[in-house]
């Protein structure tokens, strides 16, 4: 049986947009596709520097803002499997952080904290990227896990594991997609694959899952 060509979902997602076109917009901050590719490659180097290897799970906790998106895509670029976790709600306090630590202690997963929310085992994420050398994308089996998505709270749907080949099946549809709390990460991934501009709503209201 002929072996399938190895691919990287993050590289495929970022290959569609033209270099100068805005890729992500969050508040007053905007990055083009060209800038995003470089930032994601540096984020992959940051994951490598923390000992993350291809195929390992990394958990990201924070609001769905620019830094969160870059860290998420950087993990995919490195061949790791990012799991998005919402920032703790005001009423959760230390209990929310303890739940994350419990999950980490029971697995080999690494933890990353974006936007300064939640428990952390590392220094703030953005402090590491400025001097990082961009890493090449990690080729992966098309059927290998690329990432998890958030549970679809509004519809009762569960979180999904997406293989790297999911990035091959999304059609081109130019435009601007504003993300909602109900479909944040998956919506962002689909929009990037189309080469569109994604409006991240990091301060959107959040509800308990």
From TrEMBL:
Name the domain of life: Bacteria
The record's Pfam families line, in alphabetical order, gives: AMP-binding (PF00501)
| Ranges for domain AMP-dependent synthetase/ligase | 19-114
InterPro entries xrefs: AMP-dep_synth/lig_dom, ATP-dep_AMP-bd_enzyme
PANTHER family of this UniProt entry? LONG-CHAIN-FATTY-ACID--COA LIGASE, NONRIBOSOMAL PEPTIDE SYNTHASE PES1 (EUROFUNG)-RELATED
Q: What is this protein called?
A: AMP-binding protein
Q: Organism, per UniProt?
A: Ramlibacter monticola
């Amino acid at each position: 049986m002929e072996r399938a060509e190895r691919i990287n979902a993050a590289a495929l997602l970022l290959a569609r947009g033209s270099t100068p076109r805005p890729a992500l917009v969050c508040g007053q901050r905007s990055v083009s596709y060209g800038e995003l590719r470089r930032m994601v490659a540096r984020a992959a180097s940051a994951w490598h520097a923390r000992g993350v290897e291809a195929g390992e799970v990394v958990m990201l906790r924070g609001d769905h803002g620019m830094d969160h998106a870059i860290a998420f895509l950087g993990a995919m670029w490195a061949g790791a499997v990012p799991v998005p976790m919402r920032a703790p709600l005001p009423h959760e306090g230390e209990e929310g952080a303890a739940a994350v630590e419990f999950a980490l202690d029971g697995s080999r997963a690494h933890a990353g904290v974006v936007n300064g929310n939640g428990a952390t085992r590392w220094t703030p994420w953005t402090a590491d990227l400025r001097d990082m050398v961009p890493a090449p994308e990690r080729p992966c089996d098309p059927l290998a896990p690329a990432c998890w998505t958030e549970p679809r709270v509004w519809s009762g749907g569960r979180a999904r594991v997406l293989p790297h080949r999911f990035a091959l099946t999304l059609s081109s549809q130019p435009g601007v997609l504003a993300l909602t709390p109900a479909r944040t990460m998956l919506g962002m991934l689909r929009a990037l694959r189309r080469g569109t501009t994604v409006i991240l709503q990091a301060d959107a209201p959040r509800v308990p899952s």
